[in-house]
RRM domain-containing protein
Amino acid sequence: MAKKKVDDKNSLNGNNTKNESDLSSNDDDPNFSDPEGFVDNIPEEELLGDILKQKPKETDGVESVIVVDGVPQVGPDRIEKLKSVINKIFVKFGTIVNEYYPVSESGHTKGYIFLEYSSPVNAAEAVKLTNNFKLDKQHTFQVNLFTDFNKYESIPEDWEPPEPLPYEGQGDLHHYLLEPDAYDQFAVVLGQGQSVQIWQNTQPDPSLVEERHAWTHAYIRWSPLGTYLATFHKQGIALWVGQKFTQYKRYAHANAQFIDFSPCEKYLITYSPQGDPNHPSG
């Protein structure tokens, strides 16, 4: 009986193989080639509109790169020390993910370097605050975005004066004095600067006027007359004014922890107990 079952199984397999062979021989393979004389006149924008928007550009990846000129030219034995000094200055503006120090055949630096930040915002901030930075008596930094070189190369020969921008005022800096019930405002900092709330001291319960996350890195302070709201950041101090608390001005002073206004709010003093390790006398 066992032998018969094996023979039946082999016979069944043979029939299946034969049937598959017949099917493969009868069905023709599909032909995806274009007919003779076919012209594809459909643009890629119509077929791949959404995909082409995500196509990488030639400038992708270089918006976060800055070029620092005026760097000291040192030998191979002092390059690591130079990198340490440069890093302390530029790491204040964000995370540096890549750095390149061109060297000559003898191993000496050429006086300029390339730094890449993790974000284009950090790169723009570094250019704004370190351009014309005086490292010492002999070296002053000239800092530019890497993309600026292409922009300056493509300047048209025929110059056209820019159109004047419409005037945008700061609004009424003393709008709070027009409060009909003369309610005061007060600020609350939640956590370690994770959130800042501005409240109106209305009755019977205070009412929330404004709330922003990560508005300050430490604490906040009102000016003596209540015109300005000062917030503290790693790069310096920012002042906010008006009914919507729009940014008025920024003052660059790394690690500033204390400030003081003049009684008439015409002057501002900032103080950093840590100081700048590269300029102890500053």
The mean pLDDT is 82. Helices lie at 2-26, 44-47, 49-53, 79-90, 120-130, 147-153. The first strand starts at residue 65 and ends at 69.
